[in-house]
Design a protein that fits this description.
four-stranded antiparallel beta sheet, 131 residues, mainly beta, elongated, 0% helix
């Protein structure tokens, strides 16, 4: 499960509903007031953890990957530039933990309107689709 903010990924026990944080993106960035659109009601730039999906063959050797999309700062503190990226996490079932991560798509455009970030990896395509 991806948290809606702060770049967190959790594992939820389907029987008892207990939630355990398994990963937090250290470079998560929730946007900055410096990025507000100077028109109309000055909306904030989009940010957050937008989506998460598992590899289609998750659970088989070599395919224990979790993919998620979240916001990060491509700029600096004084000149922020909030963008989105897709990060791949490696899951170790015996440890019940994330054991590695890598950025696979960076510098995804951002905006001020309603944002969505569903991720899908169809079994037949083995490509990441983002809506």
């Amino acid at each position: 499960m991806a948290q809606l903010s702060r770049g967190n990924v959790s594992r939820v026990d389907p029987v008892y509903g207990n939630k355990t944080f398994v990963y937090t993106a250290s470079d998560y960035f929730g946007g900055s007031p410096l990025e507000q659109l100077p028109l109309c009601h000055q909306p904030d730039i989009g940010s957050g953890t937008l989506g998460l999906t598992l590899h289609p063959d998750f659970g088989t050797a070599g395919n224990n990957f979790i993919y998620f999309i979240y916001s990060y700062n491509q700029g600096t503190i004084s000149v922020p530039e909030t963008k989105f990226k897709i990060r791949r996490l490696t899951w170790d079932a015996s440890l019940q933990a994330v054991t590695g991560d890598s950025d696979i798509v960076m510098n995804l455009a951002n905006g001020y309107d309603h944002l969505g970030g569903r991720l899908l990896i169809p079994i037949t395509l083995h490509r990441i689709l983002l809506t």
